[in-house]
Amino acid sequence: MLIEQFGDPAGEVPATAIEPVADPLADDDLQLALYLCYELHYRGLDGVDDAWEWRPSLLAFRNQLEELMTDRLLAEVGAPEPFAGSVGDELFALVAADDGPQLARHLASEGTLDQFREFAIHRSAYQLKEADPHTWAIPRISGPAKAALVEVQADEYGGGEPERMHSQLFARTMRALGLDPTYGAYVERLPGTTLATVNLISLFGLHRRWRGALVGHLAGFEISSPEPNRRYANGLRRLGLGAEATDFFDEHVEADSVHENIAAYDLAGGLAEDEGAEIAGDILFGIRSLLRLDNRFAARLLGAWESGGSALLGPVALVA
User: Fold this and answer.
1) Residues 122-146 pLDDT 10s
2) From CA 293, how far away is CA 254, in angstroms rounded?
3) Residues 248-282: pLDDT tens digits?
4) Could you give phi then psi for residue 163, rounded to 5 degrees?
């Protein structure tokens, strides 16, 4: 990930037109490039000067990647449309109606330890910075919706206890599985379908115009979380692993069972009540986008495993 020319704070990205790709939501190079562009807004990149975060030529390059991703997403999910009903009820209905690949069921009942390790590697791109992308919404909304969002995020960050931050709990899970919990350690091994699930949140979070979609994405996360996380924890226990591995998932069963109603009705519903039918449509676009990309992700993993392979882009060694 070290790109030598980016060590120069006065450098520029040469103006170039990015050629269209067959599937921007799965293209490994496009999604990795976008992930690295976004990472400048989080913890930065080794060897890249922080001044690049707002370099106009880099933002122009990133914008091309975003347009390719957004155009494909709109084609698959459909453009947002104004919605005048109960946003909270509709969010729950969309999750209930989702019939995507059953990744959690597989891992609970027959997943191997190697498959759990691979699953954790894929998820590490988001979980090791869990909550950070959604936090971009806090300064962009107001009133009861803001208060609800802060309530949810405070729990995500451990309620003031650093060791209970969900990102830290996931790092413990990785260590228990014999994996490297260092932030970004496996990014170069992740396929586009995995990186797209994380880039989607950054795309929504870094553009104020997508604040409704960001809220819908978070609400979808919370609503769809408890049952899969229960299955993941039970699968790890089936394989003989203890609390070091399961605590992250058990925590989400408990916390997200509370968060789901706050996120659906107080946060998403509150934002729709405050801003109207247009933002409500954006909220529903956000959860539809989440479900579509998560289903693509699950299908990629299950397809690879069914054929006896891996969805990772190369081998990964265990750590002591």
Assistant:
1) 999 999 999 999 999 999 999 999 9
2) 25
3) 999 999 887 889 999 999 999 999 999 999 999 99
4) -70, -15
Query: What is the domain partition of the chain in residue ranges?
Result: 4-75, 81-306
CB-CB contact of 255 with 155 (8 Å): yes
203: nearest Cα among 136, 270, 272: 136
Q: Which of 141, 125, 127, 146 is nearest to 38 (CA)?
A: 125
Give the per-residue pLDDT at 7: 55
Q: Are 46 and 1 in contact (CB under 8 A)?
A: yes
pTM over 0.70: yes
Averaged pLDDT, 159-182:
97
Q: Which residue do the tokens 């802060």 mark?
A: 150
Encode the chain in three state secondary structure: CCCHHHHCCCCCCCCCCCCCCCCCCCCHHHHHHHHHHHHCCCCCCCCCCHHHHHCHHHHHHHHHHHHHHHHHHHHHHCCCCCCCCCHHHHHHHHHHHCCCCCHHHHHHHCCCHHHHHHHHHHHHHHHCCCCHHHHCCHHHCCHHHHHHHHHHHHHHCHHHCHHHCHHHHHHHHHHHCCCCCCCCCCHHHCCHHHHHHHHHHHHHHCCHHHHHHHHHHHHHHHHCCHHHHHHHHHHHHHCCCCHHHHHHHHHHHHHHHHHHHHHHHHHHHHHHHHHCHHHHHHHHHHHHHHHHHHHHHHHHHHHHHHCCCCCCCCCCCCCC
- Specify the CATH number of the domain 81-306: 1.20.910.10
Distance CA 137, CA 308 (A): 41
Encode pLDDT of 7-28 as tens digits: 566 677 777 788 899 999 999 9
